Batch of 2 targets.
Target 1
Amino acid sequence: MSVLREQERRRRDGGSVGAGRRAHREAQPAAVRELHRQLLAEHARSPRGAGLRAPFSAQVHRVNPVCGDEVLLRVDLVPGPRGGLLVRDVSYEARGCAISTASVSVLHDLTAGRALQESQAPRRALREVLTGATGAPADEEVLGDGVALVGVLRHPARTRCVLLAWTAFDDAVACAGLI
């Protein structure tokens, strides 16, 4: 049984969120953990979308007070071709740990050039997995490279490092005042 299915089964059968996190930590094969580590290292070494660009609809600066990671993030929202809004670009300057840098790079990949509605799915899925809010397993179809970020469940204090950029994205969309 896969780690994610086991995690889901434990939650459904009354197991705690902590039990699900332990199951993920204990049962994830070493080869998968290594692949995820390499993927995060690649995003941290060569972050996609780095650098501030204009035009932009909103800009926010967020800091993780626990470790000092920070991100200055710009989002450019425009009317989409089929109605709704399109995330034309996400640009940023990030300073912090490799996990934080990789997270904002993954965010760029999963949001830039997509409909705003579509870009919200990975954000919700990642937050749900990391917080254990719904017991939802990590869905590679939705999270793409972001599935590697789920590895921080082995280090719960690093969850904030992952979520910093995603919170900044949410705040920038709200500041744009277009939704």
Target 2
Amino acid sequence: MKDVASCRRWVADDYDHRVPVSRFLKILEHGAPVLPTEALPVEVEYEHPVISQFPLVEVKVTDETVTLVVENRHTDCLAKDVCGLTPEPSCAPGSGCC
């Protein structure tokens, strides 16, 4: 099981119904008591045209904006200890290790 917080925001061209920055921050603060740690990794989910998840690496807050800086997510073998993989894994298709 992976401990990660998923931040799902829907973005559209409808400027009349957007969530203000102050409300978005209140939503995040409201969820904080149920999180196991402040160091919990956060992933931002975005759909265009397919659903993708991006690890959050930085948050920039001003009086008018909250900017979430994300990076690309990469796949990885989840059973390295079972497979005995080196830092540069080479799982063969059908091997059962990845």
